[in-house]
């Protein structure tokens, strides 16, 4: 691997995405409530999109700041998801919305700049 590939594959955003993906497998996220289903699906889609953006990037064009920005937004989803899993309060999932919105803005920029 090149130094550029190592910088991308070794960035903490990969661990954040893995942790979030693992938490998304919790049985406590299974619900018949359409709001819960929609919010959890949106988080899953964001994780998938982030992995696609990072995996499809040209490593030599990726700056640590790009990855830091994505990690910053995605990392803020995890505590809210954990809180929902702990107490079932849908407001915690709703609190992920601005972080997902900001992540999408960052990921779209990232995808344009690094492909």
* Percentage of β-strand residues: under 5%
What's the alpha carbon Rg, rounded to whole Å? Answer: 15 Å
Coarse structural class: mainly alpha
Instruction: Quote the distance from N terminus to C terminus.
Output: 19 Å
Taken in chain order, the helices and strands follow as: HHHHHHH
Please, what is the average pLDDT?
A: 92
Number of strands: 0
Low-pLDDT segments, ≥5 res: none
Q: Which oligomeric state applies?
A: single chain
**Share of helix among residues?**
over 70%
Description:
Helix content is 75%, strand content 0%. The chain contains seven helices and no strands. With 115 residues, it is mostly helical.
Brief description of this entry?
This protein is an all-alpha fold and 115 residues long.
Which structural traits does this protein have?
115 residues, mainly alpha, 7 helices, 75% helix
Task: Furnish the topology, listing elements before pairings.
Blueprint: H1 3-9, H2 12-23, H3 34-55, H4 64-75, H5 77-87, H6 90-94, H7 97-113
Helix pairs in contact: 2-3, 2-4, 2-5, 3-7, 4-7
């Amino acid at each position: 691997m090149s130094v550029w590939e190592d910088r991308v594959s070794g960035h903490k955003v990969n661990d954040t995405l893995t942790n979030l993906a693992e938490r998304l497998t919790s049985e406590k996220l299974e619900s018949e409530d359409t709001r819960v289903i929609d919010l959890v699906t949106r988080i899953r889609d964001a994780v998938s999109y982030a992995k696609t953006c990072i995996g499809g990037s040209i490593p030599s064009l990726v700056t640590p700041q790009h990855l830091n920005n994505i990690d910053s937004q995605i990392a803020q989803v995890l505590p809210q998801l954990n809180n929902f899993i702990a107490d079932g309060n849908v407001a915690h999932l709703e609190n992920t919305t601005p972080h997902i919105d900001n992540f999408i803005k960052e990921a779209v920029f990232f995808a344009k700049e690094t492909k």
